[in-house]
Amino acid sequence: MHSKLIFFFLLAISSLNSIAQNIHRTACDGNLARLDSLLQNEDLHVPDNRGRSLLHWAVGCNQVKVFDNLIERGIKINMEDREGNTALYVAVQYNRDSLLDKLIRLQENEDWKSQQGASLLERAILDQKLSFVQKLIENGVDIEILNERGSSPLEISKRIGADEISQWLISSGADESNVRTFTMKGDYMGQSPPGLERKVFAPNFISTEEYEYGSVFNADGTEFYYAIAKNSNAIIRYSGLTDGVWSQPETILSHDKYGYNDPFLSPDENRLYFISKRTLDGTDRKEDHDIWYVEREGDGWSEPINAGPNINSEDNEYYISFTEDGTMYFASNVNASGDYKESDHDIYYSPFLNGEFQEAVRLGDSINTQNYEADVFIAPDESYIIFCSTRPEGLGRGDLYISYKNTDGSWTRSVNMGESVNTEYHELCPFVTADGKYLMYTSNQDIYWISTDIIDQIRK
After folding, report:
1. Could you report the per-residue pLDDT of 259-286, keeping only the tens digit for each?
2. Phi and psi at residue 86, in whole multiples of 5°?
């Protein structure tokens, strides 16, 4: 088993009671004797805090004997987690070929093909797993099935550049005339502006089946940068407005050993900042994130430059925003320790003086707590600050909070931005457009936007 996978599953159940924690951990560990003991006093269908069943865990952790045992006990094979995914989805997501075969054979009828087929094919295509695409279609999933966005398998594969899958789908009868194209024109890509109800931004052009986050426009609204989660290595993409038409998004920063994400422009827009696990010499990947930047050079960018020791440490630093005078706000877990190391990030700022960033200063208790605080957007005039935090009173896996600066320079106690912004999912990567009209952020793996009237509404 992969340690990263196990950590992901264990982290997700940290808020469960001890019995539920033990039983899901036990399923992942493959301890059948202990699982049998725990099931004497626990429901076979007990979910974790993301709604995942023991079968989800057995598949995710590749525990074949646990899987067989749960089937013998009569566990429901199509239980959905809070994102609507079943154990079939987990089998595709984590490359569990033999368990996928078993789950398909165990289906009582053909309903799984129409009910789950689109999401299963979408997952396989995004991960560029041709063998899984072939297996699903050969088992009867419609080659033209549409997902919730109205995209066919061929459209998804063409959108992400999965050429081998596209060629196989076409050779197997996929209709190329069903593939839609999207031309975006004008301000904000021609999107109808949101009010106090959040909307997905530029669906099927920017917000697609992939995981998009960390979006930022330049001040003129003619450049747009954002990140895409690509397995373990994120990439940064760009779209530009020329003659009234937005260019197809293109990748401008990527690497096969480490990722680049959380893009943000400097106040003069001559630097594009981002985070990466790149080593200083660029030859390998390290354990923690640092803040980096590239400088404009003609129509391109320089090689990545590290932001320096007053910003970066041996721990994580990430997500960047700036005030008008160039002061950088960012997050770090440099002062966290022990069991809180991974979960306790705080927000810092560093003034930019004489061409250098100064020693970073941690914000006070109105902002920072023993919980996770990160993904900070600072208003250019420092009148308010928006950030992501995971707090007990939160609405989901991570919420956006806001604090306002008082006339004496102190910050008001931060408050949750409420149900207009936050959901049961993870809200992160806030950014307010330079015209002050829109708050953009990531939720449920898409980029959303909402009117900044919400900021004034909360202030009142």
Report:
1. 999 999 999 999 999 999 999 999 999 9
2. -100, 180
